[in-house]
Amino acid sequence: MPSIPASPQPRPNVLAIPAYVAGKPPVARPGLTSYKLSSNENPYPPLPGVLDAAREAAAEMNRYPDMGSSALYAALADTMGVPTEDVAAATGSVALIYQLVNAFCEPGDEVVYAWRSFEAYPIAVTAGGARSVQVPVTADGRHDLDAMAAAVTDRTKVVIVCTPNNPTGPAVTQSELDAFIAKVPSHVVVVVDEAYLEFVRMDDAIDGIATYRRHGNVVLTRTFSKAYGLAGFRVGYAVAPAPLAAALRAVSLPFGVSHVAQAAAIASLAAQAELFVRVEDLVARRADLVARLREVGWDLPDAQGNFVWFPLGDRALDFAAACGELGISVRPFAGDGVRVSIGEAEAFDRVVEVAARFAPAAQ
């Protein structure tokens, strides 16, 4: 038999892309209601008017979406008080990270970010042929911004500040961000990833819009997946000076944000009064869970997103398995810790039960 020719080989960096590990659904347990607390999803149903808008848009599925997202850009610009030229939409804020690397990095250029942080960063950087420069977070899960500034070299094209940091939880203050930006050369793009900004409750919180207005190299990335509860529709957006926003739009996938997603996002912006009520409830649930965890012996990193972080180290997988036995799925990061989303309050009794067994004082 003739030999089969060798298959074409992808670029070496493609073979080096780490796999994204999504939060798993819970395994059903007899007699228990299962809860998924592994993906930082919003437990609420769609905001008022959103489902109707999505259904109406779905009736036109035979038509392409507006590639320019013009109605969505107008709604975002009006909501934030920015020019439409300064907005770029994509299939979730994660797509914007891919586009940033594609738009601004040559092969071998560097992207600096904290670690552990959002799992998609090393994937996007490697896929784009750039090089990750990971700067360890502090013992309490915070960005070491001085070390990140020191890590910037002549090859650095992008730095990413994830605030609040996923999965560890702490957020950067405005004073810290201002000092950091002052140390970064103006030709380097500073990405402020604000996927969880609606949940921040702290003194000197970042004003992302004011920050981007003061700098020609700052890009804000945001999403409708978390607070707005549109995780299944995949729509995020960036706010940046017009030349940077134009670069993001130039490398975007044509027709990437579906017609249904655009309609749902616009309707969600129109329902912000109800959104803020729901966010406040989730923040209150977060505070209650953190207080209960402290009572059983945990000193957790400051939780400013819709999740809490357990720095469990080598016990992370065991903790996740124990939660799974009680019908709760959480997100373990082997060797580092476990992230637990703020979801249904009914699940928290079981989370606290497991946490009490794994508390440092109980070891």
Distance between the termini: 64 Å
Helix and strand element order: HEHHEHEHEHEHEHEEHHHEHEEEH
Secondary-structure content class = alpha/beta
Q: Strand order across the biggest sheet? A: 2-8-7-6-5-3-4
Q: How large is the share of residues in beta strands?
A: 5-15%
Mean pLDDT: 96
Family: Belongs to the class-II pyridoxal-phosphate-dependent aminotransferase family.
Function: Aminotransferase that catalyzes the conversion of aromatic amino acids and 2-oxoglutarate into corresponding aromatic oxo acids and L-glutamate.
Pfam families: Aminotran_1_2
Catalytic activity: an aromatic L-alpha-amino acid + 2-oxoglutarate = an aromatic oxo-acid + L-glutamate
Describe this structure in words.
This protein is α/β, with parallel strands linked by helices and 363 residues long. It has helices spanning 12-15, 50-58, 70-80, 93-104, 120-127, 145-150, 174-183, 208-214, 242-250, 259-269, 272-295, 316-325, 348-358, and strands at residues 35-36, 87-90, 110-115, 131-136, 156-162, 189-193, 218-223, 236-239, 307-310, 328-329, 331-333, 337-341. It contains 13 helices and 12 strands. Strands 2-8-7-6-5-3-4 form a 7-stranded mixed beta sheet, with helices on both faces. A 3-stranded antiparallel beta sheet has the order 9-12-11, covered by helices on one side. Helix 8 links the parallel strand 6 and strand 7 (218-223). Helix 3 runs parallel beside helix 10 (259-269) and helix 4 packs parallel to helix 5 (120-127). The chain starts with 11 loop residues before the first helix and ends in a 5-residue tail after the last helix. Its cofactor is pyridoxal 5'-phosphate. Keywords: Aminotransferase, Pyridoxal phosphate, Transferase. Belongs to the class-II pyridoxal-phosphate-dependent aminotransferase family. Residues 36-353 form the Aminotransferase class I/classII large domain.
